[in-house]
Every structure is written in structure tokens, then in C-alpha cells.
Write a structure and sequence with these properties.
The complex is a heterodimer of chains A (443) and B (372). With 443 residues, chain A is mostly helical. Chain A has 14 helices and eight strands. The longest helix of chain B is centred in the last third of the chain and has 40 residues. The structure holds CIS-heme D hydroxychlorin gamma-spirolactone and protoporphyrin IX containing FE (2 copies).
Chain lengths: 443, 372
């Protein structure tokens, strides 16, 4: 395997792995806060039990997120030293601010996880707030770095070395807003649907207590709202990339000839020769989405030199997968909300089954979406400025480290999944009111 | 003073914080691996308790160091990433395994039965806390169960500081040479495998073990405290012995470093370090634990600062200076200005964390277990 391929795969494996935990690190604190807040308000013990169960799960996943994130900070240099020599100074401000967010997150997570008996209930809840805020902030900040790679702005370079840069350029890239919005929503969706699946499964197996009902409610409150908003934000993303990364949009839709009245493809596999097999075509759909007008002209792949086109197959399929999952989850969220308004859902077996089946969809969409973004940027690592092949390390050992890290992450992932399963398995003990004092001043 | 020197100073402060706080956490893992004697289990409990709430925060200092290097000195980051590709990957392996194994052990089903309140496990006195099976208590538990994770945790904690020390040694060894931008030449042995690098790696291991033992002696009481005191004296002796062995090596293999350390700018700093080292041993003998802790921290700070001062103005000797590797001025200024703002958020939070878990904790344990 050549170094470039190995380096790309190692980056992909590492980021794909990290994202699982990053999404939980953004989503879980919010779920815990809602549950604990309900406990403070109502004094009902099952809310506290939920918050504590989620806190345990978060302790496990956060640590893996932190160490895999550390690996990423090194890997940016280890795999892409020439890219970092050029871009380190530009991306630096985003990562420097992110560093503070990590710090706040780690500090308050320590307080939250180990502080149940050391802090007053109210102080304990407040210790959770900075975790949720800084988790979100760290995601938004790191995505600024990625956004700059998609739409670089405000810098000058000579000979692969930065000579002039506005230190805020990483925050002034036009891609930041939509990427950060879409990616943050996706973290809440992925977490919310994954957690909802656990409680829906429990209810299907007959555990219809308040604990399971509230678990499902809170998870789908967070995941569901985000899922309904996500197609809107995805539409914004698609229209923005039509402006500044037309090759990516063309690859997403396997669109070759620049034209108007471009159809929107649903599904289908690009045949590599300019056509797409087995796709459903919505006439003028893409033109309508991008410009709100069927006469909107969409640049096709043929407008780009052969060596500046992203891989069409992967990008197109990944995009279809993401959108498919997104539509299913949005519909499910609406179904749940409608059914929940009419009362208890613990008997709605069809709905519960659908929620169980949908629980991995958030993660599938999240990983697929990043593949769209990153593979769709190829062959550039910094769009229009530096090719991926020019950023890669000269060290020839990458295939070995790729193998090592893949094995390591597979092993860790398996061990973690097993531990989390055991965590859900420890049966919830019906609230023994003597163990949970009602907090003072609770309404 | 120029911007890049100030930023390098910030980087050094972050490195010092990591060496002291993160170093002690590695040391905790070392003593977990080598826990022995009748109170083996209590030793591990005490280590897990001391690290639990703080290790992730301590770990972030390393990320700060990396971020400062790649944003302010991108050329150095490039050169290090290429030249130290192999050891950095091993460091990552160690960091990943250590962190994951530590929490996996704490939350594994074997110890889940003991999931009680943190105060229920009493490392200080030796009497194990009651097994607390309430659904509550999100706090992790006793490390004696789930041994395989414990072994991984211990081994990774032992190997990683050696590798980090070797990487530090590599930038001073003088065999890592840079040509054209992005071109790295290795002259002779791989820079991280030179004798100087090995010596610094071994010293790093001993220092981590020493720091951890001193800290743990501060945070425990009774017999357990005696255990850690003995371990501190042992590893402290190792630190002194390794330093004495390393000096002639530095003299012959890295003369520029030797000149800086012994006959130059860094001499006063180094002198402070040596005095602090001896003092901390002396305080330990006299069971003056707090004083020993202050002296041990001073020792590490002075040693690393001495190294940095001797190394100045080079980042990688002899081809890359701070000025030569620096990013454009705007970036440096941003890093400098964001620091006070960030610290304003950070320091009170850190203070709160350590107060909640280290402050009052200590006095409770000490009153419960008056020194023998
Ligand atoms: C739960 C996850 C999830 C869901 C349901 C969706 N997406 Fe998405 N999408 C992501 C998760 C994601 C992502 C993984 O988070 C990406 C990668 C980069 C980013 O910012 O978000 C992404 C990227 C991404 C991009 C590329 C942006 C760029 O490269 O600049 C587009 C055009 C869309 N999405 C469009 C959509 C549309 C039209 C959806 C309709 C339902 C949709 N996404 C649902
Ligand atoms: C937000 C910060 C991110 C940064 C700074 C970043 C940076 C990079 C870099 C430097 C590369 C290698 C060069 C290249 O192949 O173009 C890369 C590739 C890649 N990244 Fe990202 N990335 C980020 C987020 C993500 C996430 C979250 C994912 C996925 C889960 C991801 C998926 C990928 C994939 C799949 C590739 C390989 C693309 C290919 O070679 O075809 N990225 N990224
Ligand atoms: C190249 C890209 C990336 C790098 C270098 C990186 C680096 C890191 C590092 C060093 C940590 C550990 C912090 C700690 O110890 O607390 C971390 C954690 C985290 N990262 Fe990333 N990261 C990258 C991509 C992303 C992306 C794309 C997101 C989100 C959209 C993200 C969100 C998070 C979050 C929320 C955490 C908190 C820890 C957790 O909950 O698991 N990161 N990251």
C-alpha cells in the first residue's frame, strides 16, 4: 500500500473513531442536564438515576474521546507534516481556543462525575452546565479548522510556508457557519437516537416504568428536535457548496454536464462513465434546491480537469446514505411527537420497534456526511491551495501504523461496547425513596 | 523580548504543568504496576482515588504543548513529526491504552459491585469501604478487580514517560538535522535512540515515580503513607543516581547542552534544582511531607527550565531556532493575547477542582490518621 493511501485511511479511521465519542461528548451532557434538572424540579428519583447512569456511560466514552483526540492532534503532524507546516499557523488559533474548551470540559466532568456527594445538588447541576457548553464549543471550534480547509481565506504562502496571515482567518471562512451548525446538530441526533434505542428496547421487553419512559422522552426530545431541523441546515450546506466547491456538489449528485433543469437523484450507483444506474430522478430537483428556480445552472464535473475531480462513487453514495437516514429520522421524530402528545407510548410497539431500528442511523449519517465533506474535497487537502499528495509525510512506515491503529481502535471499540452493554444490563433498581433525598427547595 | 520567545515561554509553562501533574499521574500508574506488600490493594485504591477526578484535566496540558508547537512553530512540528514518527506513535499507543484502561477498569462489571460513593472506599485507613450497591453513586470503584485492565494501565504508564523523555532527548542530541524546508536528515543513530535520549528517558521514568510517591504520601495516612514514603525514597535515590550517570553522557554526546547547563546561563537554575532535590529527600526522611512536595515540584520545574534555558535559542539543535521556526507574527500575538483570557476561565475552574477533591479531603484524612 502506498504511503498516501495508508495515511488517508489512518486519518479516516482515527477521525471516524474519534467522532463517535466527540458526538457523545456533545450530546450526553445535555441529556444528563435535562434529567438532573427534572430531578431537582420534581424530586422523582428515577430522574436522578437516569442522570447517574448517563454519567457513568459518559465517563467511559469521554476518556476514549480524550485519548483518541490527543492521537489526532499528533496525527495531523505525523501524517500530514507539510500540510501542518503551511496550515499550522492558520489553524492554530482555532485549536488554541479549543484547548481551553477541552480544559473546562475535563475539569467540570471531573467535578460532575466524582462530585455527587461532595457538591450540593444545585451546585452539582451547575457543574454540568460548563460541560455541555464547552463540549459544543470545542466541536464548533475544531470545525472552523476543517471549514478553512474547505474554503481557505486570508493568507499568503511562499514555498509551502506561511508568510502572511490574519490570525482570525480561520474564523472568517465562509464555510464555518453551515458546517458548524450542521455538524453540531448531527451530534445531538446521533446521541439522541442511539440512547433512545436503548430505552425503546427496554420498553419492548416489558420494562415500562417511569425510568424507561423518561429516558426515551429526554433522548428523543434532544435528538428529535435536531433531526427535524437537520434537513433545513443540510439544504443550507448544499447551497453554500454550490457557491465555493462546485466540484463537490457535482460529485455528490454525480452530475457531469453543466446544465440547467438538473434533476435530483435519489439513490443510484454511479457507473464511472458519466451515468448513474438505478436512480430515481426528480425533474429539475437539484436546480430547484440550489437556486429555488428550475433554470438554475449547475456546474458539472466535466468542467473540471480530470485530476481535479473528487471520487464520484464514494461521494455520491455517502451523500445518499446521509440524506436517506436524515429523512427517516425526521419522519420518525414527527411520528413520535404526534403519538406522544396523545399519551403514553409504552404500548406503541410499532413505533418502539422503529425507534430501535433507527438507533444507529444518526451515527451512520454522521460518518457518511463527513465522508461527503472530506472525500468530496479531494484531491485537495486545502481546497485549491494544496493537494493531499503534497501534504503527506515522507516517512514510509505509515502502512504499519495504519494497521496498528486499526487493530487498536477495533479492540478498544469492542471492549467499550461490551462495558456499555453491561452498564445497561445492570437492572435499574426501583426507586427506594430513602436513598434519594429530595433536594431542598425543589419545587 | 520578542513574541516568539514569549510564546516559547508559554509552551514551557504548559510543559512544566504537564510534567508535574501529568507526570505524577504516570507515576501513579507505575506504582500501580509495582504495588506490593500487604497493602497492595490499598495502594492501588489510593492511586485510583487520587487520579480519578483530575487525570483528564492534567492530560490537557499535553494538548496545549502540541497546539503551541504547531501553531507558533509549525516548522518545528513538521520536523519533529517526520523525525520522531515512530516514537510518537508509540507515545500515542501508550497514552491511548493508559487512559482507556484506567476508566475501563474503574467501570468494569467486576468493580461495578463496588460502585459506591468515593468516600466509601477509604484508601487512607486500609479498611475497605462497604460495598455500596445503590443505583446511585456514579463514582468508579476499586481497582483490585478487573486486573487485566490494571496491568495494561500500569505497563502503559511505565513505558510512556520513558518514550516522552526519549523524544525530549532527541531534540538535544544533535543528530536530527534539517535541510531544505521539510527535509529531515538523520545522522547516525535515530535521534531518539541515542545514549542521551535513553538517559533522559530513564530519568523521566524515575522522576514520574518520585513525584507520584511524594504526592501520594501527602494524600494518605498511616501505614499506607509509610509505604509511599519508602517508594519515594527509593525512586528519589534512582533520580539522583541516574542524574549522576547522565551528566558525563551529556558532556560527551551533547556538549552544547553541557556548556549551557554547567558553565552557562542555566547553571543557577540547575543549582536550584539540585538543592531542591536534596532538600526534598531530606524532608522525606524527616516525614515533612508538605515540604517534600514543594521541594519535589521545584526540582522538576528547575530541571526542565534548566534544560530549556540551556537549549535556547534552539528548538532543535543545531538547525532550528525559535525565530527560524516561528509562524507569522500575527499568530504569535494571537496566542499571547488569548492566554490571559483563557486563563481567566481556566485557573478558577482548576482551583475549584483541586479544592473539591484535594483540599478538604486531605485534612479529613489526616485528622483520621495522625502521622505515626
Ligand atoms: C445525523 C447526521 C446527519 C443528517 C441526518 C444529515 N447530515 Fe448532512 N452532514 C452530516 C450529518 C448529517 C455531518 C457528518 O455532520 C456533515 C459532515 C460535515 C458537516 O458539517 O456535517 C454533513 C455534511 C453535509 C453536506 C456537505 C457540507 C460541506 O461539505 O460543506 C451536505 C450538503 C449535507 N450534509 C446535506 C444534508 C442534507 C440535505 C440532509 C437531509 C436530510 C442531511 N445532510 C442530513
Ligand atoms: C474538524 C476537523 C478535521 C480536520 C482538521 C480534518 C483534516 C483532515 C486531513 C488533514 C485529511 C487528510 C488529507 C485529505 O485526505 O484530504 C483528512 C482526510 C479525511 N478526513 Fe478529515 N478532518 C476533520 C474532520 C473529519 C471528520 C470528523 C471526519 C469523519 C468522521 C473526517 C473524515 C476524513 C476522511 C474520510 C478523510 C479521507 C479523505 C480521502 O482521502 O479521500 N474528517 N481530514
Ligand atoms: C482533526 C481533528 C480533531 C482533533 C485534532 C481533535 C482533537 C481532540 C482532542 C485533543 C481532544 C481531547 C480533549 C480532552 O482531553 O478533553 C478531543 C476531544 C473532543 N473532540 Fe476532537 N478533535 C478533532 C475533531 C473533532 C471534531 C470534528 C469534533 C466535533 C464535531 C470534535 C469534538 C470533540 C469533543 C466534543 C471532544 C470532547 C471529548 C469527548 O467528549 O469525547 N473533535 N478532540
Amino acid at each position: 500500500m502506498d504511503v498516501l493511501t495508508a495515511a488517508r485511511l489512518q486519518m479516516e479511521v482515527s477521525l471516524g473513531f474519534h467522532m463517535i465519542f466527540a458526538a457523545l461528548g456533545i450530546g450526553m451532557p445535555l441529556l444528563m442536564l435535562i434529567a438532573e434538572w427534572r430531578w431537582l424540579r420534581t424530586g422523582q428519583a428515577h430522574y436522578r438515576a437516569l442522570a447517574q447512569k448517563w454519567a457513568k456511560a459518559t465517563a467511559l466514552t469521554f476518556a476514549v474521546g480524550a485519548v483518541s483526540g490527543t492521537a489526532l492532534s499528533f496525527e495531523l503532524g505525523l501524517l500530514w507534516p507539510r500540510f501542518m507546516a503551511l496550515a499550522g499557523g492558520v489553524l492554530g488559533p482555532a485549536f488554541a481556543l479549543e484547548g481551553y474548551a477541552f480544559f473546562i470540559e475535563a475539569i467540570f466532568l471531573g467535578l460532575y462525575l466524582y462530585g455527587w456527594d461532595r457538591l450540593t445538588p444545585r451546585a452539582h447541576w451547575w457543574a454540568g452546565v460548563p460541560i455541555a457548553v464547552s463540549g459544543l464549543a470545542s466541536g464548533v471550534l475544531v470545525v472552523a479548522a476543517n471549514a478553512w480547509m474547505q474554503a481557505p481565506a486570508d493568507f499568503e504562502a511562499v514555498n509551502g510556508r506561511l508568510t502572511q496571515v490574519d490570525p482570525l482567518s480561520v474564523f472568517s471562512t465562509p464555510a464555518w457557519f453551515h458546517l458548524a451548525l450542521h455538524s453540531s446538530l448531527s451530534c445531538y441526533i446521533a446521541t439522541g437516537f442511539a440512547v433512545a434505542g436503548v430505552y425503546a428496547l427496554g420498553m419492548l421487553r416489558g420494562r415500562r416504568d417511569a425510568y424507561h419512559r423518561s429516558g426515551l422522552d429526554i433522548a428523543l426530545l434532544v435528538g428529535g428536535i435536531a433531526a427535524v431541523l437537520q434537513p433545513l441546515s443540510g439544504d443550507l450546506s448544499a447551497r453554500r457548496i454550490a457557491e465555493y466547491q462546485p466540484a463537490k456538489l457535482a460529485a455528490m449528485e454525480a452530475h457531469y454536464e453543466t446544465s440547467t433543469h438538473v434533476p435530483l437523484l435519489i439513490g443510484g450507483i454511479p457507473d464511472g462513465a458519466g451515468g448513474v444506474k438505478w436512480a430515481l430522478r426528480i425533474p429539475s430537483g437539484l436546480s430547484l434546491l440550489v437556486g429555488h428556480d428550475p433554470a438554475t445552472e449547475i456546474t458539472g464535473l466535466n468542467a473540471f480537469p480530470e485530476d481535479e475531480r473528487p471520487p464520484v462513487g464514494i461521494t455520491h453514495v455517502a451523500f445518499q446514505v446521509m440524506v436517506g437516514c436524515g429523512v427517516v429520522m425526521a419522519a420518525l421524530a414527527i411520528w413520535f411527537a404526534w403519538r406522544r402528545r396523545r399519551g403514553d407510548v409504552s404500548g406503541a410497539r410499532l413505533l418502539l420497534r422503529a425507534i430501535v431500528l433507527a438507533s444507529p442511523l444518526g451515527y451512520i449519517a454522521l460518518e457518511a456526511g463527513w465522508i461527503v465533506t472530506e472525500v468530496g474535497r479531494q484531491p485537495w487537502v486545502i481546497y485549491g491551495v494544496m493537494r493531499t499528495a503534497d501534504g503527506v509525510t515522507p516517512v514510509s512506515d505509515v502502512p504499519y501504523t495504519l494497521f496498528g491503529f486499526t487493530v487498536l481502535y477495533l479492540a478498544l471499540g469492542t471492549a467499550l461496547a461490551w462495558l456499555l452493554l453491561r452498564l445497561t444490563d445492570q437492572r435499574y433498581m426501583p426507586a427506594d425513596e430513602t436513598t434519594y433525598e429530595t433536594p431542598e427547595g425543589a419545587a | 523580548m520578542t513574541a516568539e520567545v514569549l510564546v516559547a515561554g508559554l509552551g514551557l509553562i504548559a510543559l512544566l504543568a504537564y510534567a508535574v501533574l501529568g507526570g505524577a499521574d504516570f507515576g501513579g500508574g507505575i506504582w500501580d504496576l509495582f504495588a506490593s506488600g500487604a497493602r497492595r490493594r490499598e495502594q492501588r485504591d489510593a492511586i485510583a482515588q487520587a487520579m480519578g477526578p483530575v487525570w483528564e484535566a492534567n492530560h490537557v496540558w499535553l494538548i496545549f504543548v502540541i497546539v503551541i508547537i504547531f501553531s507558533a512553530f509549525p516548522l518545528a512540528y513538521q520536523a519533529l513529526s517526520i523525525a520522531l514518527f515512530v516514537p510518537f506513535h508509540f507515545v500515542l499507543l501508550g497514552i491511548i491504552l493508559r487512559g482507556a484502561a484506567f476508566v475501563f477498569r474503574a467501570y468494569s462489571p467486576q468493580s461495578a459491585r463496588a460502585l459506591g460513593r468515593p468516600s466509601a472506599a477509604t484508601p487512607a485507613g486500609g479498611a475497605p469501604g462497604p460495598d455500596d450497591v445503590r443505583a446511585g453513586g456514579a463514582s468508579p470503584a476499586r481497582p483490585e478487580r478487573a486486573r487485566p485492565w490494571g496491568v495494561i494501565f500500569g505497563v502503559a504508564s511505565t513505558i510512556t514517560p520513558v518514550l516522552l523523555g526519549m523524544c525530549l532527548g532527541a531534540v538535544s542530541a544533535g543528530t536530527l538535522r534539517l535541510g531544505e524546508p521539510g527535509e529531515v536528515r538523520i545522522e547516525g543513530a535515530a535521534p531518539w535512540l541515542t545514549p542521551v535520549a535513553w538517559a533522559i528517558g530513564a530519568l523521566a521514568l524515575a522522576l514520574c515515580a518520585y513525584l507520584a510517591a511524594v504526592f501520594l504520601a501527602n494524600e494518605t495516612g498511616g501505614e499506607l503513607r509509610e509505604d509511599f514514603r519508602r517508594r519515594a525514597l527509593l525512586s528519589g535515590t534512582a533520580v539522583v543516581a541516574l542524574s549522576v550517570l547522565a551528566l558525563p553522557l551529556v558532556r560527551s554526546e551533547a556538549p552544547h547542552l553541557w556548556d549551557g547547563l554547567v558553565g552557562g546561563r542555566a547553571t543557577p537554575v540547575l543549582a536550584v534544582g539540585i538543592i531542591a532535590a536534596l532538600l526534598s529527600g531530606w524532608f522525606l526522611r524527616g516525614r515533612r511531607y508538605r515540604a517534600a512536595r514543594v521541594a519535589a515540584v521545584t526540582q522538576i520545574v528547575a530541571l526542565l527550565t534548566g534544560w530549556a534555558v540551556a537549549q535556547y535559542p534552539y528548538l532543535i539543535y543545531p538547525d532550528l531556532t525559535l525565530a527560524g521556526a516561528a509562524a507569522p507574527r500575527g499568530v504569535l500575538v494571537f496566542v499571547l493575547w488569548s492566554t490571559p483570557a483563557g486563563m481567566l476561565l481556566l485557573l478558577p475552574s482548576l482551583w475549584y477542582l483541586f479544592r473539591v477533591f484535594k483540599g478538604e479531603h486531605l485534612s479529613v484524612r489526616e485528622s483520621a490518621h495522625p502521622p505515626d
